[in-house]
Amino acid sequence: xxxxxxxxxxxxxxxxxxxxxxxxxxxxxxxxxxxxxxxxxxxxxxxxxxxxxxxxxxxxxxxxxxxxxxxxxxxxxxxxxxxxxxxxxxxxxxxxxxxxxxxxxxxxxxxxxxxxxxxxxxxxxxxxxxxxxxxxxxxxxxxxxxxxxxxxxxxxxxxxxxxxxxxxxxxxxxxxxxxxxxxxxxxxxxxxxxxxxxxxxxxxxxxxxxxxxxxxxxxxxxxxxxxxxxxxxxxxxxxxxxxxxx
Length: 246
Fold this sequence. Notes:
two-stranded antiparallel ribbon; 7-stranded parallel β-barrel; alpha/beta
């Protein structure tokens, strides 16, 4: 059986304080850098954990909106949004430099992640942000999205992302958290969800359709109930199927 290699990422530094349990089970992390959560103290702590466990570090910028945890779309000028995102990422980079760790990727958070999948103008703010760095930084993007297409056109390196703990609609959007079936909270279901995307390059939607998808990195939310147990179980089952997490 051929060995497959995938990445598992998680959003961290968001106030849950479970990173010491979570980081040893993942291969890349997205650190909140002050927009929706996070401060220099949490960034330093999580960076140190990531460095210890050889976990790739990414920035997790968002709309500057701690009140709504970055989960509401903010109506702000594009220049102001760019400046806020630049400040957030540079704040993380300053902490990374102190720890002699390099920035691997950027993954926008919450409402920003959702809107750039569909809205070209907001997505271009992200593209310009990535292009502003003198060194190559990967962008985590959903498959078949506006941001993915723009990144490819603008020679911004991307890594396709899918969600290990979320159900999908037929258009590859995530089922709303307001719906009872939004989350995948069962280890067996999560394993089959990931395995199908890795081996068949398809995802089974809530309507029972098998829709083509591509992904190399799979996100598990740290606030998903029993996230640590789910990750331990799923990683073991993936290893049994010769799927490595690196």
